[in-house]
Amino acid sequence: MKITNCADALRRHHFEVETVRDTDEAFAVIKAAVETERPETVSFGDSMSMRATGVIEWLRGDGRYRLLDGFDPAMTYPQRLEIRRQALMSDLFITGVNAVTAEGTLHWLDKVGNRIAPVAFGPRKVIIVAGRNKIVANRDEAEERIRTIAAPQNIARHPGFRTPCAKTGVCSDCNSPDRVCNTRMEMLRCWPDKRVLVVLIDQDLGL
Questions:
Q1: Fewer CB within a 10 Å sphere, N or C end of the chain?
Q2: Which domain holds residue 124?
Q3: What pLDDT score was predicted for residue 157?
Q4: What is the C-alpha to C-alpha distance for residues 190 and 6, in angstroms, rounded to an integer?
Q5: DSSP letter, residue 1
């Protein structure tokens, strides 16, 4: 019921929405959306939920689309950043989200901004993948979820990052050079209509 109500709210705000039971169904939806769009170039912003669907492996192995991979470990960091810049003008962009509200809005907090910038503008089609654990009641709960769950747990995935939350597990609004909470974005409505497809998965996924 929570997913259904959230999906209805997102649709009222002009998002395209698909609700699925698991990551296998999510992959089928994403694959069909990509094939329908027939993009020349595809890129992505890192997301555990998105990766759980297997879509990146599929794109890497499918010769129909040019994948702009800004996370290729074989590249230097400046090379990866350049690819992420190019992703701003990809035809289709796939990523995750930190929180989705039952009111029908999407919320992010990023370090570099390469994940949220293409969502806001550039690619003709955007696909957002979110597990049911990302759904919260409202904007205040979205902010709380980001500060107490998403950001500290993301830091925990990067043991080389030295921030207060790496030790305490709680955000202290720091000024650390390794801070990952630098750029905030919320999407209140989708424009143009259905430019953004939100795939809501009835599983707990990602951070």
A1: N
A2: 3-139+181-201
A3: 83
A4: 15
A5: -
